[in-house]
């Protein structure tokens, strides 16, 4: 019961579907992953590298024209349509392929074109038809109800349990007496939409009960909703998640409309999907309004006359289809067939199915068994099957983690650690709010309240009153191996499950002792110690110091980060505060050749570029170990100074930034230092007015390229407190280098840790600041600012200490000189006066 992942038996009993030799061949096509562990296949799977070369070669060798004008290209595409149908074990006599931009637009096109009512005139008597959907659908299916409602269909949703029960109850066909043998004038159609596999947790819904549905097994549910029963049922199957890992055999089951996206099967091309329409149901798609190029046989531009083409897909595909992407599909099929052996049932998809199922099952089982040292469960899973049957479960595992005391670990906290370990998973609700709600047991009212309180899909609020608002999803593809399962579990154990580590107690005391021994003057407050040390070095005016000696809090250090994500420039004495924060703080950034800003998250070596600013010589000099320093001018204003500077735009945290290019010489220097080609150094143009994201009282603060606020204040006492909490013997930072990781602008020294969290305003020297809130920390604090090395700490301990809220340091915005003067200089070793609003003591 004292189990941990490391205590689990060896995994040699696991079923290995694809032999190691073949597996090596497969993984050699994904070398671009390097050490990344990719478990987000349900979002998009990855293409094998060899696929790109064959597609490239094809496009290099052949002339493909618009298929409307070129018979050859059209023939190639026709051929691919039948290849697709063959993949699903059917042929053009039974099904048609309509190309779309993806599953979402496929679903939309079906509902827009579907004939809900045979007689679409507004008439009280006429039956309106219904749109029935499973609640546990992808958001793209939920949105269909808006179109269906506009088309006057009744909108009916059905719960997971009711749906399964209706489908699995053996339904007496004779009693079902299909009352209406042939559609009468008032007859209408019912369209049922459900997923073949849940994108939330990989549960496979029955797809072999289509006949049952068509025979009316859901009629009683409709009756309960006081809807008229329309005997013509059509099934819209969302197969996007299912077909990525499973065999869909359309000779065994025949949904009317099957929607899918090809990137979920092959990883490439994106932007291409399809509807597979059962030919005998094609007529139900007769309500399509728009016609575009290629869809009509005849049209008059001046009269409301047009005749649609007779082939279903010709009527449905408006404009020119993405024909080069379609051409690529041929190679997708060929490449997969070459790469994947047909071990199970002599079928490629069955082989993939089993291979990925075993991986997911292994993860599931190990999560089930995962326990904290005190015996409490370390994970909860959100599954609808226990992996006992591959027919009902795909290769997805959805879960949350628990602390030893039973409380939840937020998925955002998990996501940060996963990023750090280079593991790709999905967190949140994965566009399936129905399943999310059912598994997290949240009521509609709770969800509305949560939304009212400011939470939206995709934000960082992962726990509300201790309850999770989402989960973690790991999904497998054919290139994954048991090693990937290990990587994820090792990371979970390392970060979140305290495994039995006997020597821990001893390490704890050692660290504390060594920290104690470094405290030099035990009688003084820390601030006084700093001041007395500072006195020796810079000798400011005598009264100043004596005054400050009384102060309990002092500004110990100030720093700017001239280039976003690069090293700090520590301020020696005073520095000017500009409209965006400290002058020259994050005034420059490095952008990649795609125009996007480079950050330490992508390249940890950035912190080793150390800028120094010389205000007299008006230049910034960059230093990097082993390279000659290089300088750029501070001023750009007069455009003539740098001839080849050009105004450019870049994205920083989804904002567009305007700036000047600093020229080729420094660009080459940086590219070589960071070992990334085509980097450019950009200086933010002074008229670029980024404002603080969180706007209080309608006032806006100008921002430089720092992402959140003008200043970040770090309390050294809090850093010391954190250092003592970090028990990992591998973490060797001292207090100062740990402080550096937080990349604060203002480092204060005082005796009390965490006190800064309660401040509302703060006056440093003569300058007043307003507290904007706590700083949410990301994995950047895990980068050693001297070496660029990544560590697990201090993020793990921060998250542990603050119950998953990764907050450290406070954001400040500048208010102005406290004495009303024009003085905008900030001096180090100034005293720090915190102000706590009286009316806010309740916090
Ligand atoms: C991915 C997915 C979708 C949406 O597919 P798009 O390619 O984004 O249009 C819809 N349903 C399910 C079940 C999915 O997995």
Automatic annotation (TrEMBL):
Q: What is the E.C. number? A: 2.8.1.9
Annotated active site residues, numbered on this chain, are 431
Q: Biological process (GO) annotations?
A: Mo-molybdopterin cofactor biosynthetic process
| Recorded catalytic activity of this chain's protein | Mo-molybdopterin + L-cysteine + AH2 = thio-Mo-molybdopterin + L-alanine + A + H2O
Which residues are annotated with the PTM N6-(pyridoxal phosphate)lysine? 264
Entries under Pfam families matching the protein:
Aminotran_5, MOSC, MOSC_N
> Per its Swiss-Prot or TrEMBL entry, what cofactor is needed?
pyridoxal 5'-phosphate
- InterPro entries with a match to the protein in the record: Aminotrans_V_dom, MoCF_Sase_C, MoCo_sulfurase, MOCOS_middle, PyrdxlP-dep_Trfase, PyrdxlP-dep_Trfase_major, PyrdxlP-dep_Trfase_small, Pyrv_Knase-like_insert_dom_sf
MF terms per GO, please? lyase activity; molybdenum cofactor sulfurtransferase activity; molybdenum ion binding; pyridoxal phosphate binding
**UniProt superkingdom:** Eukaryota
Q: Which residues form the MOSC domain?
A: 679-835
Question: Which keywords describe this protein according to UniProt?
Answer: Molybdenum cofactor biosynthesis, Pyridoxal phosphate, Transferase
Would you identify the family this protein belongs to, as annotated?
Belongs to the class-V pyridoxal-phosphate-dependent aminotransferase family. MOCOS subfamily.
**Function field:** Sulfurates the molybdenum cofactor. Sulfation of molybdenum is essential for xanthine dehydrogenase (XDH) and aldehyde oxidase (ADO) enzymes in which molybdenum cofactor is liganded by 1 oxygen and 1 sulfur atom in active form.
Tell me the protein's name: Molybdenum cofactor sulfurase
**What species was this sequence derived from?**
Mythimna separata (Oriental armyworm)
Lineage in the entry? Eukaryota, Metazoa, Ecdysozoa, Arthropoda, Hexapoda
The gene coding this protein: mal
